[in-house]
């Protein structure tokens, strides 16, 4: 199913035209008389007398060929409320058939600027489906004709939403791919194609990583027949040489747990253990498409955590890019090893204004926050507050969790500088974040987002229909828009 949106100043006069009209929070019809025939107006007015006006949307089937959809614009709507309204509209009209709707833009009366842009954006986000490997293709189309002279999104706003959709969908596509297709070799190849969007792409393969001393990252991937990679994506949209904003993502394309083997049940879901990297890639694609006026860099570590005769063993000690040594007590605590090298490299190489990393890092964060909030850990109150506010504004919510030096003792090792897991028990997400913080060497403002509960949805959410969510692309774009452009 695909969505086609067109714009026109001329309303057609077909008798079988499906109409979408907007009204106030009380479903007052007075101002809609000019858009309805007398019989339609009286019919709908009569039905509203016995309807629950707390609802946001009504679908009236006048006959087998014509529907009228009435949408109420409540007062003091947030932008995500409008997007959710668009998503609800999509659910109502997605009946598996080709259909066409005329959205009458002149009927929009809202104090929220760009109401229609957010409404259409919600429709697009909700409509995403990953059907690439279905042999029976769904070629059905929902056509939306935006007609009228008022309230239509400007070309600039349309580009903004198009870029966000492209970035979010690209992230969802990456997460949705099976592990036999999107292994690290293929992932790295795909990222080269982002050059066409204007991104500078550099790929560091096994040989280059070994020369750099990224043994923590390489140790995770050494059991796979596939290569391991660090990929940097640069966007230079500022007119000066200002410090870039840095985003780092965990890209474990499939995670068996290594010799600390995961249970068989639900292991198939471990294709989404690269969702942090997908968010970073989707964000960078979005920034390039909309030509954001900032400098930014995305850094992703791509590995596959497999079991083989060459795989990392529990008890191995590796020397990270930072020079610090790590005792690997659990090979299933692998994401933090990948991020350790990526974080230090990003800080040293790019000297960024801040670093935000994203990872499906711990099951403990799901125990704590479920699938409503991502865990936020940070060494900087300003950055933390900016991320929290951006999340509230786009309804990709985060909740700040503690970091404290007292947790360090849980990660100290008798045999190396640190160990990769806390065997004492408790505080699984915090000790993981505390581990990562050790690889921020120059006090760069840093935030870690544990998105394990947010990256994939079995049942769907307000703006996705189940599967990969693309969580974080819209959140970080909002962070940039509101604070750094």
What does this structure look like?
The structure is a single chain. The chain is an alpha/beta fold. 32% of the residues lie in helices and 21% in strands. It has 2 domains: 2-153, Leucine Aminopeptidase, subunit E, domain 1 (3-Layer(aba) Sandwich); 160-483, Aminopeptidase (3-Layer(aba) Sandwich), CATH 3.40.630. It has helices at residues 38-48, 79-93, 115-127, 155-176, 184-192, 206-212, 215-221, 275-289, 335-350, 364-369, 381-394, 428-437, 473-483, and strands at residues 2-8, 19-23, 57-61, 67-72, 99-104, 141-147, 200-204, 229-236, 245-255, 295-305, 316-319, 325-328, 354-359, 374-378, 398-400, 418-419, 446-450, 456-457, 467-468. Helix 11 (381-394) packs across helix 13.
Task: Tell me the distance between the termini.
Answer: 35 Å
Tell me what the CATH architecture of the largest domain is.
3-Layer(aba) Sandwich
SS summary, helix count? 13
Structural class by secondary-structure content: alpha/beta
Query: What is the mean predicted local confidence, pLDDT?
Result: 95
Biggest sheet strand order reads: 7-8-10-9-13-17-14-15
Estimate nothing, just give the exact number of structural domains: 2
Give the C-level CATH assignment of the largest domain: Alpha Beta
Report the strand count. Answer: 19
> What would CATH call the homologous superfamily of the largest domain?
Zn peptidases
Determine Rg (CA atoms, Å).
Answer: 25 Å
Task: Report the biggest beta sheet as strand number plus sense, adding barrel if it closes.
Answer: 8 strands, mixed
